[in-house]
From TrEMBL:
It comes from the Bacteria. Pfam families: TetR_C_33, TetR_N. The keyword Chaperone does not apply. Residues 23-83 form the HTH tetR-type domain. Keywords: DNA-binding, Transcription, Transcription regulation. Coiled coil: none annotated. It comes from Dyadobacter pollutisoli. Residues 46-65 bind DNA. SUPFAM superfamilies: Homeodomain-like, Tetracyclin repressor-like, C-terminal domain. PANTHER family: ACREF/ENVCD OPERON REPRESSOR-RELATED (PTHR43479), HTH TETR-TYPE DOMAIN-CONTAINING PROTEIN (PTHR43479:SF20). This is TetR/AcrR family transcriptional regulator. One of its GO terms (molecular function) is DNA binding. The lineage of its organism: Bacteria, Pseudomonadati, Bacteroidota, Cytophagia, Cytophagales.
C-alpha cells in the first residue's frame, strides 16, 4: 500500500506521462499536417486527412487543436522560428550593418525557396493567412532583424532617420514581392539565376540610397 507521499509521487508520474503523451501527439499532428501539405498543397489540408494519416479518429485531433486554423497557426509559428534561427546567426556573423542586411535578404530568399510550404503559410501566398487576430512576436522577427540593420546603416551614414520605419517596410515589400512573383508564377519564370540577380541588385541599390 502506497504512503501519501508515495501516492503523490505516483500521481505526479502519471500526470507527467500524460503531458508528454499529449505533447508528442501534438508534435505528430503538426508533422503529419506539414507532410500532407508538401505532398498535396495547403488548400487540400483537412482534419479528416490528418486523422486518417495518423490512424486516429477525428475527435482525437480536436482534443489537441480547436480546428484546422489552429493547426495552421502553430505551423506558421514553427516557420517563423526556423527563419529566426537563421537570422540570428547573421547578426553574430556580420558586425557591419550593410553586410548584415544583405545576409538577411539572402537568408530570407533562401528560406522561402527551401521551405515554400512554410513561407506560403507565413505570408499568405495563395491562401488565407492563418491565426487572424493572433499577434505573436515571431510574426515580426524578420522586420525586427532588418530594422536593426537598417537603423545601423542610417546611423553610420549619418542620414536622416525620420523615415526609418517606412524604409523597413519598403525593403521587406520589395523582397516579398520578388519572391511572390517567382513562387506564384514558377511555370513561366524558371531562371533562378536571373531572379536572384534582380534581388541582389535591388538590395545593393536600396542600401546605397539609405
Amino acid at each position: 500500500m502506497l504512503t501519501p507521499l508515495g501516492k503523490l509521487g505516483f500521481d505526479m508520474g502519471i500526470l507527467e506521462r500524460r503531458i508528454r503523451q499529449k505533447e508528442n501527439m501534438r508534435t505528430n499532428i503538426l508533422s503529419v499536417a506539414l507532410q500532407l501539405v508538401k505532398d498535396e498543397g495547403w488548400q487540400s489540408l483537412s482534419i479528416r486527412k490528418i486523422a486518417d494519416a495518423i490512424e486516429y479518429s477525428v475527435p482525437v485531433i480536436y482534443d489537441h487543436f480547436e480546428n484546422k486554423e489552429a493547426i495552421l497557426f502553430e505551423l506558421s509559428l514553427d516557420g517563423f522560428r526556423l527563419l529566426e534561427r537563421t537570422l540570428e546567426k547573421n547578426k553574430k556573423k556580420y558586425p557591419d550593418p550593410a553586410e548584415r542586411l544583405k545576409a538577411h535578404a539572402e537568408a530570407y530568399w533562401n528560406f522561402a525557396f527551401k521551405n515554400p510550404e512554410y513561407y506560403q503559410l507565413m505570408y499568405g501566398l495563395g491562401m488565407p493567412c492563418s491565426g487572424a487576430g493572433k499577434i505573436k512576436p515571431e510574426f515580426n522577427c524578420f522586420r525586427d532583424f532588418i530594422g536593426e540593420a537598417i537603423e545601423g546603416i542610417v546611423k553610420n551614414k549619418k542620414s536622416t532617420d525620420d523615415e526609418t520605419c517606412f524604409k523597413i517596410y519598403a525593403f521587406w515589400s520589395v523582397l516579398h514581392g520578388l519572391i511572390s512573383i517567382v513562387m506564384m508564377r514558377c511555370s513561366d519564370i524558371d531562371d533562378s539565376t536571373m531572379n536572384k540577380k534582380v534581388m541582389d541588385d535591388t538590395v545593393e541599390a536600396f542600401i546605397k540610397n539609405l
